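Honest question from a wet-lab person: if I give you the sequences of every part of a complex, can you actually get the arrangement of the whole thing, not just the pieces? Trying it with mine:
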Amino acid sequence: MSGESVISVKELTKQFGNFTAVDAITFDVKQGEIFGFLGANGAGKTTAMRMICGLSLPSSGEAKVAGFDLYRESEKIKKNIGYMSQRFSLYEDLTIRENNRFYGGIYGLTDKQIKEKTNFMLEHLKLEDQADTLVRSLPLGWKQKVAFSVAMIHNPRLVFLDEPTGGVDPLTRREFWTMIYEAASQGTTVFVTTHYMDEAEYCNRVSIMVDGRIEAMDSPGRLTQQYQSEDMNGVFLQLARKAKRAEG
Amino acid sequence: MESVKVDRVYKRFGSGKTSIEALHDISFSVSKGELFGLIGPDGAGKTTLFRILTTLLLANQGNAWVDGYDVVKQYQDIRKRVGYMPGKFSLYQDLSVEENLSFFATLFGTTIQDNYDLIKDIYAQIEPFKKRRAGALSGGMKQKLALSCALIHRPSVLFLDEPTTGVDAVSRQEFWELLKQLQLQGITIVVSTPYMDEAGLCDRVALIQEGKILKMNTPQGITKEFKRPLWALRSQDMYRLMKDLRAFDNVDTCHPFGQFHHVTFKSELQVDGLMEHLKNLGHEDLVIRDVAPGIEDCFMELMNS
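Yes, you can. This is the full assembly:
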């Protein structure tokens, strides 16, 4: 992970009127890294993530994502990243196969590529029998795994996962993280948010946002040492308690 | 006295081949003043159970009582006595904070002033925004308003369906401190959560999965029932360590657990032999130690068996 930066953010800021939601954050994420993006509700995570995905223009600062400039090339950024969230990912009233066709089509894959990708995914997840099942009737854990695969259908260098494992049972949560490890070991960069502090410890590095600023950023091992805490939960509580602004 | 009693409850949705059994032979009881947790993932049946106990849904089979009243025959008595905070935010989005609260107080024939002492610790945090529409509140503030509304008629039993889902670690801890305060006032609390680490904050818990209770006990009682030795291992490359451990003959289960992998073995572990094997595979900075199982270890063990 000493390679090139896939995300490079300098002094990125977002203001809504007088309110500074994101306050001059600076960080780099390397190729193949699993980067945990943590913060309390209202700390500015979602706003920061929306900017980095090219969905919202910064007030000031610079950023390059997957090699593209945030101001001039936001459309290229969108084409070259994967995105999955717990709240929105798959169309519930389409089957697994149809979701693949839809997202593959959106990202400009050929029919042949979509077919290959779909078959590979079904085999890999052992869901061959479920290819024509409506997503709505799949158990939550399977849905999340399918959603992750669909987010990767166009082989993005970088994938954003926004609280991907909320409410999932502990075994499935770990299977999901095994998929994340696997993707990272093949060179995909993973940018992930979570409220599970044990999951923060699966990341190579984490950043913790407080009141719009990045208050700490390092490997979980070094952070727990620095804050003399047994685990990341303790580190998080120490930092997030410093927050001054009320949740907006 | 038992505040909640559930006796062999079954619930099925739909009919024929596509029907789903949401609850299967559920029995438990909760004592007066107890903080009881239903711990399980989405789809376990937690919400269905809450809806039956709050008289919003009928079971197919079995009986249940809340505060001594039958959930079917005496549903009106129950509705006066329970507070219910659903998992989905269900207050009036277009009413202000204060309007919502006084609406619920009026429904129960009381006033905010009469019961202010019960809610003041919670309500004081959102009172500065009392003119704001509920729909415009942040997640944490909505949660506090919903709890205030569920408490405004001084219920004897409080049902909280996943009050901390999607909430950050700090707010979650604060919320549990609030629950402990309410418990001191003599209110019985039944709370559900998908976060296994919250089990330790309850007096007793039921671990629930796919409509069945896997285990019920005090949190300490549940972890004590984990009978075999549990080991924690780490190395420089955790993904490769997981693959190598899972491929090792004597390894039964290996699950990532924060900065370590938690591992159980089929027969007694020869620590030196395993470490030698892993070193030969090129692992560096190896650490191994025995570790006390947590609720999540137990939950996974029960799911596997």
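Two things worth pointing out. Chain B touches chain A at residues 40-43, 138-141, 165-173, 194-197, 209, 238-239, 242, 255-259, 296, 299-300, 303-304 (CB under 8 Å). Chain B is about 30% helix and 30% strand.
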